[in-house]
Amino acid sequence: MSEGVPLGGQALHVLLDSELSNIAVIIRPGEVPGWFRSLQQLARPEKFAACRVVVCAHADNGMSYSIRSGINAARSSRNGFDAIAIALADQPFITAEMVRRLLSVLEQDPQLDYAASACDGVPMPPAVFRASMAPALMSLEGDAGARKLFAQPHWKGSFVEFIGEEQKRLIDVDDAQGLADAIEMFKSIF
After folding, report:
1. Which residue from 24, 92, 167, 171 puts its CA 20 to 30 A from 178's CA?
2. What is the CATH number of the domain that holds 118?
3. pLDDT along the chain (190 residues), means of 10
4. Per the structure, how many domains does the chain have?
């Protein structure tokens, strides 16, 4: 984790260091977030070349719209895609190794449709989905994330249960308490 880099930049920095080949940063309409510009200035240009900003006009209608925007961006990429990773800007403590572990689980078992993080048995981002799941991901509605797909029996997946220090790294900073917890965690790790 880099001191002085905003939360969203921390999460993106990790994704840039993982084995993901194309990264779409889904944002709300308006100006590109400051955390994105900050990281763009700090990151090596060759790493940042794999990253592009995608404006989701309907982001306020829920996470499903952001997921759709990301899939549409992947579909329009020059090389297409084999899999989609969903990660959140407000998970600043995940590591590139955690993302690589998800990718590895999916790569090692061609029968799997997805590999997702889990904390005490509860699935959560980041998660990786094969391209074959794109239609199901595109069908999500409102603020529903991909979690509801995990319960559908026709999708086969694996949950990577992160424990100990890695479990703590799955913290989602989306409210004042989450921010307070993240500050304490930052102090304890670094």
Report:
1. 24
2. 3.90.550.10
3. 62 83 89 77 72 90 93 86 90 90 96 95 93 95 87 94 86 78 71
4. 1
